[in-house]
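== Polypeptide entry ==
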Amino acid sequence: MLTQPILPAPPERVSVLGLPLHLSPDYAQWWRSRPQAGTHIITLNAEMAMLAERTPELAQILHRADLIVPDGAGVIFYLRLRRKKQRRCPGIELAAQLIEELGRDPQPRTLVFFGAAPGVADTAAQRWRSRFPRLTIHAQHGYLNPQEQGDFAQQLAQWQPDLILVGLGVPRQEYWITQHRHYCPHATWIGIGGSFDIWAGTKQRAPRWLRENHLEWLYRLYQEPWRWRRMLVLPHFAWRSLWP
């Protein structure tokens, strides 16, 4: 009889407005200890937390995820108020770390970049291939009709990649991952928002001094002023952090 491998326990789990969050100084180390275990990683920020409060389907996905990391400054603020020491873990940096890990692996590894506008994921994939030529990276933009979605799912099942990065925005990317995980049960899946645009050079990430002072959200608002309505949840989240 075949026995299932014993998987390592996830990092310490805490609650952020009733949603799970894992604390760790090195999330990649935990991921490394789960070869082909099948992992859904979610990067939590204040906007997602407030959306999950009024969207039960998204809240359920968060509770079922294998690893939830603190992506946003608001989440770090919430933790510090409760004397929890944790560094911010931006999704773009965690995804890059996992790509680099796979790129250095002597075994051939396969990745999928899915999302963003036509051409963006391709450019991002090409830049990563130039750094790690051993990687096989399949890139697909996020503007697919229903027939193309079905064809792409079948391709995923054929490729069986090690890492699948999905850049469709919150919460669409989380829903899409949940609906398609069964096609690649041993893969690691991460929703990474607009990271493909950063890697492709179509958008710029905030300067380091803004990131280190938890003001990356302000730079994104400067680049994308249409996001101002979505940013209104930030003071609400801060208020809830003080008086949950």
Remarks:
- The radius of gyration is 18 Å.
- DSSP finds 13 helices and eight strands in the chain.
